[in-house]
Amino acid sequence: MSQDVKKMKEMGAIAIALSISIPLVSGLVFALKDGSVRAQEAPLRSMIGDARYEALSEGEGGFPHYLGYERVAPDFSLSERGGESWSLEAHRGKLLIVNFWSVTCGPCLEEMPSLETLAERVERRYDDVEVVAISTDESWEAIASVVPAAGHMTYLLDPEKRVSRELFGTELFPETWIIDEDGVVRMRYDGAFDWSSPLVLDVIESLRAH
Q1: So where are the chain's domains?
Q2: Are 188 and 180 in contact (CB under 8 A)?
Q3: Which helix (H) or strand (E) covers residue 97, if one does?
Q4: Which helix (H) or strand (E) holds 135?
Q5: What torsion do the CA atoms of 36, 202, 87, 187 make, to the nearest 10 degrees?
Q6: Which fold has domain 65-207?
Q7: By C-alpha distance, which of 179, 167, 164 is closest to 108?
């Protein structure tokens, strides 16, 4: 067998091997990437349901929930109970769970203990996650019976609804926004939820910067 013929056969064998291996490798890479994405999506899918998740991902399902969108949350400053100023900009680098509520809202009061439980768990586990409750009531006295003296959440007051209504467009309570460390809105959840569910910690883990 001449060297030229032998070389051509070797090159043909290599070409066949590549034609088989490249699709396999590409398929494996795609499967691993898809599996990683699915694993990250899983907690949110469980939280809101597969059908709802798919609808929101495709821009359907009513009001914008920012799932899959790159909307940066508007900066704002509000007063804490002790009078200190709290700003969103100063908390860049943290994953924030921001809940808008009112003492006149029954579902808000029902979910408040679960938010406190979540805040306590987060406080023990992370230094880059914070749960923030923004009341739209008139004064601290108006919510004194609801807000614990030594709560684990960060409580803010927005009596003029400048932040809730004008910046975030919140009209109905409760409404909860999950904002990542870059200030990007990752999800808006309308209505009450059991935030003490272990599933919420899975959602936090999936959204935290690692």
Answers
A1: 1-62, 65-207
A2: no
A3: strand 95-101
A4: strand 129-135
A5: 60
A6: Glutaredoxin (3.40.30)
A7: 164
